[in-house]
């Protein structure tokens, strides 16, 4: 893998297969990667933390964590990494690739599942396959963290209400003594079926080479 | 006069529809209908003279004794006739829905046109001249604005902005293409036309182009009328509808441009260039005017908290002013109205009271639906009235060209657009977009405006326009529904947004912005985020009064949801069972993390007899009654005498209290009879959370008699203090020997809120003092308790009115 970072040009084909990006997109992303890492092979949390545009993002922590989460590498590993190479970076990015217009229904379903899984993993911090109430509360609190003086209580009650909604849609009948442990992935899919995740959770990756533009930005 | 009306009845054209008959009888007396419009006053008076002479002359004899019963119809003529038309329109709308299955097959717009045709036919049949009902002034200044404002105010901003590029391309390039394609080819056909060339060959290129620009614009009124009924998915709806709204600027510019050209008769390159510039001025100027008025409206609504009654008026007036101001400069009034409505809405909604919001909603819907009905009826009447010049070649060619141009335009543009879209438009989508391009009354009114001097062919044009409108509205409008079914085009999801979806929409926004930032690519999420931030930081502070300016969207959504549920609850009569879609027995307790050692639920059956329960009910009921009577007062200026109005908290509170009372009663029932699963409602629990007071209930209430926590649904927010999540009610305990004590107990629970926001109406955000009820307070508490208990009552009993009472 070390070789892939030293001479990435030769591995583009390989990466194209793995991530589904086009050569140009990979080239662009690689430039960005190098820019972020300061021409190092690996990128660390601090590197991402330094991106100025991210400063205002309420869920910055989760986003950065997602990059270092092994679960998002299309492999079955768990745990987190300290730093990631370009390939891993690309794999995380590939979750945000738009669906091909030629994709069949099944492919769309797969893509949707992958995207949802990514989201789910962001919430499920302890990787037990369940988003517990506490985890969900954290999500909502983080989400509202930028909006100033929001009482934690409000954030909590929102999370509680949301949790209650999940519970009542998925397990409509519970005895008073039953305990709904948390959102499983199936339930997660269920509650978000109204959002067209396969198209919504996509960003446009640049095709053309914008190296000059970037350099201009860098030097300024 | 009676003989005249009878003859209509005998003609029996409308035997099927009784409603029409009734109205026709009414119309009989006022056949010379002319709807008020400043320039029509003279014909009205002229008519009235003859009318008086023939019909009412005998009644107006002077020189008699004091007239006990006098008849002076002419004084009320104009308003009377307007009312008659509106009444006719409303009754028609009503009537269609009474006839089963009819509205499923035929769109309302078609039926209304038919009614218009019939009414026009009757008017004509009586030998009267058909009034020019679809007068351009009336149409553009009275009938159109409500529909457009309704569309703009309730414009789904998010899908609209996400698809703005596509919409703009369809609206601008598509309309231009349509106009020039239809106009150009029509000119060609006119020139090579064979036998009827004598008439057609006189039509010049400019006239053809003008005609093309009139006929090519998709009509928002027609689109709305049809698309509302087919419930198509949001994307297609916003694409077609957005196009119909935004193409107004193109139409306005083209119209004025070609009108100018045909007046002068010469076209220079410079003028063409100025025309292009004029397009930007018209479109952007319209938007600018709209935005300005929108901001003004938002700013005004900041200060209306003391005169809530006129709040809705500001929304209407500022929008109308925006429309008129834009029209002054020949800017696009429709775009101004759309921009105004869309800009002001988020701020106005945050400022005004909930009731004003409801008022705005209903007024807009009411006006727009009456306008729409009238427009279609008038279209029918005008068809009968208008001087027609039916030219087979011209009409057929126009209809065919319109269809062809639309299809080519949509397919061609989608091909380009799809290269840039993340969500591609499928062939089915393209078909619906092309097929949904209905033409409507705007085209007719524009054609009506044409100057006869410059356009000797006006009649041919009008006839062709009407034919195209009829063709699109009838053929396409009627077949689009079965086609949508046939093609299995994705329908709109009726389900309302859930809180989870809202959370994840927001989460996704931030996530995508973050990923774009990491990619170093400033895409549209990035800019949207910037805009949102700017909005939050500066704009909201200026335009929204008080705390709500800082409220993040998610919390606003949450409050709105709570509100909705509260209202639902109130409307459902205060029952404990929510009319929720999902009958669920899940409660807060089920999701709450709790220790494994939970107390064994022992169901102590309370020794509460039936008549005790009855007694409680009676106390509650009598109190409800009394409060209602005491509080009933009417004030014209301040509609609502209660600060409840201002906050959302009132409904939560009511809900909460009602819930508690109901719960107690239900609980008793439950324990008295079969141990059924405890009644609950997730929303109630949430309501309790919503008030943000729950944590305070804990310690003293637990001691006080286990009331709050004994409630099986009682939901302790602090995981640390979940020591007593499941204590059962022990109504038989000495603490609650009778109903009064029982009331007392949850009265105490409520009282804290009472002190803060209940009848005292203090701002809810004040920190609470520890409450120590002393003995001498007991009586006062009791009294207040009575009031507080009675509080939810009125709202429960009288649905809407309840909210008007404190």
Please characterize this protein's 3D structure.
The complex is a heterodimer of chains A (220) and B (806). Helix content of chain A is 54%, strand content 5%. Chain A is built from 12 helices and 4 strands, in the order H-H-H-E-H-H-E-H-H-E-H-H-E-H-H-H. Chain A has helices spanning 2-6, 12-19, 23-37, 45-49, 60-67, 86-93, 105-123, 133-143, 152-170, 185-191, 197-200, 211-219; strands spanning 43-44, 83-84, 130-132, 182-184. The longest helix of chain A is centred in the middle third of the chain and has 19 residues, at 105-123. The two termini of chain A are 33 Å apart. In chain B, helix 14 (269-301) packs parallel to helix 16, helix 15 runs antiparallel to helix 16 and helix 15 (311-328) packs across helix 17. Chain B has helices at 2-11, 18-28, 41-56, 73-98, 102-105, 108-125, 136-153, 157-162, 164-192, 197-200, 205-216, 220-230, 234-264, 269-301, 311-328, 333-351, 354-385, 392-417, 427-435, 441-449, 458-487, 499-519, 524-543, 553-571, 588-591, 610-631, 649-672, 682-690, 694-705, 707-710, 739-757, 777-790, 792-797, 799-802. Chain B is an all-alpha fold and 806 residues long. Among the domains of chain B are: 132-488, Na+/H+ antiporter like fold, CATH 1.20.1530; 502-563, no CATH class. The model of chain B is unreliable at 1-59, 575-583, 594-607, 626-633, 640-647 and 670-806 (pLDDT under 50). Chains A and B meet through helix 3, helix 5, helix 8 and helix 9 of A and helix 22, helix 23, helix 24, helix 25 and helix 28 of B.
């Amino acid at each position: 893998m070390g070789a892939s970072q030293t001479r990435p040009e030769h591995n583009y084909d390989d990466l194209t297969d793995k991530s589904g990006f086009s050569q140009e997109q990979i080239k662009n992303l690689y430039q960005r990667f190098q820019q972020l890492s300061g021409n190092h092979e690996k990128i660390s949390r601090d590197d991402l933390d330094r991106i100025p545009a991210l400063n205002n993002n309420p869920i910055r922590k989760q986003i950065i964590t997602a990059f270092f989460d092994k679960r998002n590498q299309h492999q079955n590993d768990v745990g987190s990494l300290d730093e990631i190479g370009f390939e891993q970076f690309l794999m995380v990015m590939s979750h945000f690739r738009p669906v091909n217009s030629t994709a069949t229904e099944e492919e769309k379903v797969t893509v949707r599942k992958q995207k949802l899984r990514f989201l789910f993993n962001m919430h499920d911090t302890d990787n037990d396959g369940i988003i517990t109430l506490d985890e969900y509360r954290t999500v909502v609190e983080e989400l509202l963290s930028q909006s100033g003086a929001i009482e934690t209580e409000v954030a909590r009650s929102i999370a509680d209400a949301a949790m209650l909604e999940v519970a009542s849609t998925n397990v409509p009948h519970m005895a008073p003594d039953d305990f709904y442990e948390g959102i499983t992935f199936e339930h997660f899919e269920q509650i978000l079926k109204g959002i067209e995740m396969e198209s919504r959770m996509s960003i446009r990756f640049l095709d053309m080479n914008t190296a000059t533009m970037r350099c201009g930005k860098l030097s300024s | 006069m009676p003989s005249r009306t009878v003859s209509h009845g005998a003609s029996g054209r409308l035997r099927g529809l009784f409603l029409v008959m009734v109205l026709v009888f009414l119309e009989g007396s006022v056949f010379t209908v002319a709807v008020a419009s400043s320039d029509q006053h003279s014909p009205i008076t002229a008519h009235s003279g003859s009318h008086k002479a023939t019909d009412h002359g005998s009644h107006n004899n002077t020189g008699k004794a004091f007239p006990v019963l006098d008849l002076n119809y002419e004084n009320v003529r104009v308003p009377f006739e307007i009312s008659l038309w509106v009444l006719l329109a409303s009754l028609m709308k009503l009537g269609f829905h009474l006839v089963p299955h009819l509205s499923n097959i035929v769109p309302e717009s078609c039926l209304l046109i038919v009614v218009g045709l019939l009414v026009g036919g009757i008017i004509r049949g009586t030998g009267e001249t058909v009034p020019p009902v679809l007068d351009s002034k009336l149409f553009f200044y009275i009938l159109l604005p409500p529909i457009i404002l309704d569309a703009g105010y309730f414009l789904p901003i998010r899908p609209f902005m996400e698809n703005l590029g596509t919409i703009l391309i369809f609206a601008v390039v598509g309309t231009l293409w349509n106009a020039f394609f239809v106009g150009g080819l029509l000119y060609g056909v006119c020139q090579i036309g064979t036998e009827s060339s004598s008439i057609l060959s006189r039509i010049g290129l400019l006239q053809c182009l003008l005609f093309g620009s009139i006929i090519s614009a998709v009509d928002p009124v027609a689109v709305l009328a049809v698309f509302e009924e087919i419930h198509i998915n949001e994307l297609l709806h916003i694409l077609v509808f957005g196009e119909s709204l935004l193409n107004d600027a193109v139409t306005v510019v083209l119209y004025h441009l070609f009108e100018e050209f045909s007046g002068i008769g010469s076209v220079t390159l410079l003028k063409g260039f100025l025309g292009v510039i004029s397009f930007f001025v018209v479109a952007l100027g319209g938007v600018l005017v709209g935005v300005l008025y929108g901001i003004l409206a938002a700013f005004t609504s900041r200060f209306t908290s003391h005169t809530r009654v006129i709040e809705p008026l500001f929304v209407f007036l500022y929008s109308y002013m925006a429309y008129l101001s834009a029209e002054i400069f020949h800017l696009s009034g429709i775009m101004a109205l759309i921009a105004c409505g869309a800009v002001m809405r988020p701020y106005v909604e945050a400022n005004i009271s909930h009731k004003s919001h409801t008022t705005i909603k209903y007024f807009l819907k009411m006006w727009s639906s009456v306008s729409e009905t009238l427009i279609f009826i008038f279209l029918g009447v005008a068809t009968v009235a208008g001087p027609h010049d039916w030219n087979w070649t011209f009409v057929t060619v126009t209809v065919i060209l319109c269809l062809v141009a639309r299809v080519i335009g949509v397919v061609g543009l989608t091909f380009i657009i799809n290269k840039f879209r993340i969500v591609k438009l499928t062939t089915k989508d393209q078909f619906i977009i092309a097929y949904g391009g209905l033409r409507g009354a705007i085209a007719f009114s524009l054609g009506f405006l044409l100057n006869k001097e410059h356009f000797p062919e006006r009649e041919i044009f009008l006839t062709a326009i009407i034919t195209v409108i009829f063709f699109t509205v009838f053929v396409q409008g009627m077949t689009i529904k079965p086609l949508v079914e046939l093609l299995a085009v994705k329908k709109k999801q009726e389900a309302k947004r859930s809180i989870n979806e809202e959370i994840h929409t927001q989460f996704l926004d931030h996530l995508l912005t973050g990923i774009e930032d990491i990619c170093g690519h400033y895409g549209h999420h990035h800019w949207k985020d910037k805009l949102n931030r700017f909005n939050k930081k500066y704009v909201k502070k200026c335009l929204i009064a008080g705390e709500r300016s800082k409220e993040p969207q998610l919390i606003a959504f949450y409050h709105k949801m709570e509100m909705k549920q509260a209202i639902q609850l109130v409307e459902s009569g205060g029952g404990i069972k929510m009319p929720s879609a999902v009958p669920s027995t899940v409660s807060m307790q089920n999701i709450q993390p709790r220790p494994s050692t939970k107390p064994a639920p022992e169901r102590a059956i309370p020794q509460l007899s039936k008549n005790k329960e009855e007694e409680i009910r009676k106390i509650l009921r009598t109190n409800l009654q009394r409060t209602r009577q005491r509080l009933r007062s009417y004030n014209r200026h301040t509609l609502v005498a209660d600060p409840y109005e201002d906050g959302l908290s009132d409904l939560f509170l009511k809900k909460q209290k009602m819930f508690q009372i109901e719960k107690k009663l239900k609980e008793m029932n439950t324990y008295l009879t079969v141990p059924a699963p405890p009644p609950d409602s997730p929303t109630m629990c949430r309501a309790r959370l919503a008030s943000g007071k729950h944590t305070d209930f804990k310690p003293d209430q637990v001691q006080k008699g286990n009331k709050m926590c004994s409630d099986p649904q009682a939901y302790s927010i602090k995981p640390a203090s979940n020591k007593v999540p499941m204590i059962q009610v022990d109504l038989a305990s000495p603490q609650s020997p009778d109903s009064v004590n029982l009331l007392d107990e949850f009265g105490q629970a409520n009282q804290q809120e009472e002190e803060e926001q209940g009848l005292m109406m203090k701002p809810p955000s004040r920190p609470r003092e520890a409450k120590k009820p002393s003995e001498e307070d007991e009586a006062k508490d009791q009294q207040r308790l009575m009031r507080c208990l009675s509080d939810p009552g009125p709202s429960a009993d009288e649905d809407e009115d309840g909210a008007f009472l404190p």
